[in-house]
Design a protein that fits this description.
The chain is α+β, with helices and mostly antiparallel strands. It has two domains: 121 residues, Phosphorylase Kinase, domain 1, CATH 3.30.200; 205 residues, Aminoglycoside phosphotransferase (APH), C-terminal lobe (Aminoglycoside 3'-phosphotransferase, Chain: A, domain 2, Alpha-Beta Complex). The protein has ten helices and nine strands. The chain has a five-stranded antiparallel β-sheet, with helices on both faces. The chain has a two-stranded antiparallel sheet with strand order 6-9. Strands 7-8 form a two-stranded antiparallel ribbon. It is globular, with a radius of gyration of 20 Å.
Length: 341
C-alpha cells in the first residue's frame, strides 16, 4: 500500500472525522483520498509523491509528503466554505510572520481546487520538539511565544479580517468547528456545562479590552519548541489567527494549551492552576501586570474554553462516539467552578 494511502487508512481506522473528510473529498476511501492529493501534487507542484509522514483531518485535511525532487511539502485542503480570499489572507499572514522572525512555513502555491475544496502547499517545517506542558519551563516559553506573535502582528488586522473570534458570536457558543458536533441535537444532559459557560460568558462580556491579532489555537500540536526549550521553533495552523480582545484570547488559549492529539500518547488536560500559570507567564511577556478585573476575565475565558470542549465531547458521546481519551468533562467537573472564584 502506498505510504500516504496507509496513513489515511490508519487514521480512518482510528475514528477520524468522516463528516469533514466526506465534505472535502466526497469520499471516505483511503485510496481515493490519497490519490486526489497525489494527483494535485503532480499537477500543481510538477512532481510525484514518493513518500509521506503525515495525514490528519480536523477542520480540514493535512498531508505531509515527500516529492520526487526531494522537497518535503505540506498540503492543506480546506472545505468549500473557506473562500479563496480568506485562504489567500492566511498565506499572506504566514509570509508576514516569517519576515517578522516568527517561525512559519513559507507558502509555495495555492489556493487551487482539490476535490470539493481548495488546497495550498507550503514548505514543510520539520524542526523542534513537542512542548511538554506538564512542565513549567515549556509552558513559560510557549506563553512568551504567543505574546511575541501577537506583537509581530500589531497593525496587521487586515490580514485576518475574516478571522472571527468566538466572543463575537451572539449565541452562547460559536458554531462548532466540525459538523461532527451538533450542539442543539445533543443538549440533553449538557445543562450543567451550559450553566458554567453562561456564568463565564457573563464575566467575559462585561470586560472590554483592546483588540489584538492572536493565534487562538496555540496548543501543543500546533507549535514546536527549540531543543533546549528556550524558544519557539515552529508555528502551525495559521488559519487560527483572529482579532479578539486580549484577555478573551489569552484565556481561551490557556484553556487548551496542553492538549495534543497528534502523538501516540493520550492528550493532557491541564489543571486550572496550570492554565492560570500560562496566563501569568503571558503577563510576564506583556511587561505590565493584569488588574484584578483582567485576571478574572482571563480565568472566565479559560472556563469558557473548557466548556466549549466539554460540549464537543458530550456531543460525540451522545451519538455513541465517546472516547476514553476525552478528558475535558472531568476537568470541568473537578476545577471549573474555581475559575469563577
Amino acid at each position: 500500500m502506498p505510504r500516504l494511502e496507509a496513513l489515511v487508512d490508519a487514521a480512518l481506522r482510528a475514528d477520524a472525522d468522516l463528516a469533514v473528510l466526506h465534505a472535502i473529498h466526497g469520499s471516505v476511501s483511503a485510496a481515493e483520498v490519497a490519490a486526489s492529493v497525489e494527483v494535485w501534487c503532480r499537477v500543481n507542484l510538477a512532481a510525484d509523491v514518493v513518500d509521506a509522514w503525515l495525514w490528519r483531518v480536523s477542520v480540514g485535511c493535512v498531508s505531509g509528503v515527500r516529492l520526487e525532487d526531494g522537497r518535503d511539502v505540506v498540503v492543506k485542503v480546506y472545505s468549500a466554505d473557506r473562500s479563496a480570499e480568506r485562504i489567500a489572507l492566511v498565506l499572506e499572514a504566514q509570509r508576514h510572520a516569517a519576515a517578522a522572525g516568527i517561525p512559519a512555513a513559507l507558502p509555495i502555491i495555492g489556493p487551487r481546487p482539490l476535490a470539493r475544496g481548495l488546497a495550498t502547499a507550503e514548505a514543510a517545517l520539520r524542526v523542534g520538539r513537542p512542548a511538554l506542558f506538564n512542565q513549567e519551563p515549556d509552558r513559560r516559553t510557549a506563553a512568551h511565544g504567543w505574546y511575541a506573535l501577537s506583537r509581530a502582528f500589531a497593525g496587521q488586522e487586515h490580514l485576518v479580517a475574516d478571522g472571527v473570534a468566538w466572543s463575537a458570536h451572539p449565541t452562547l457558543y460559536p458554531p462548532p468547528h466540525s459538523p461532527a458536533f451538533d450542539f442543539p441535537a445533543t443538549a440533553d444532559g449538557a445543562e450543567w456545562i451550559d450553566a458554567l459557560a453562561r456564568a463565564a460568558r457573563d464575566v467575559i462580556d462585561a470586560h472590554d479590552g483592546a483588540l489584538r491579532v492572536v493565534h487562538n489555537d496555540w496548543r501543543a500540536d500546533n507549535i514546536r519548541l527549540t531543543d533546549d526549550g528556550t524558544g519557539i521553533a515552529a508555528v502551525f495552523d495559521w488559519d487560527s489567527l483572529a482579532v479578539d480582545r486580549e484577555l478573551n484570547a489569552l484565556g481561551t488559549v490557556a484553556a487548551m494549551h496542553s492538549v495534543d492529539w497528534s502523538g501516540p500518547e493520550d492528550p493532557y488536560f491541564a489543571t486550572a492552576t496550570e492554565c492560570v500559570e500560562f496566563v501569568r507567564a503571558a503577563e510576564e511577556a506583556r511587561g505590565a501586570p493584569f488588574t484584578a478585573a483582567e485576571l478574572h476575565a482571563a480565568k472566565a475565558s479559560i472556563l469558557f474554553g473548557w466548556c466549549y470542549t466539554a460540549r464537543c465531547e458530550h456531543a460525540r458521546a451522545a451519538v455513541g462516539h465517546d472516547d476514553r481519551r476525552f478528558g475535558m468533562r472531568a476537568r470541568v467537573r473537578a476545577d471549573g467552578a474555581s475559575l469563577l472564584a
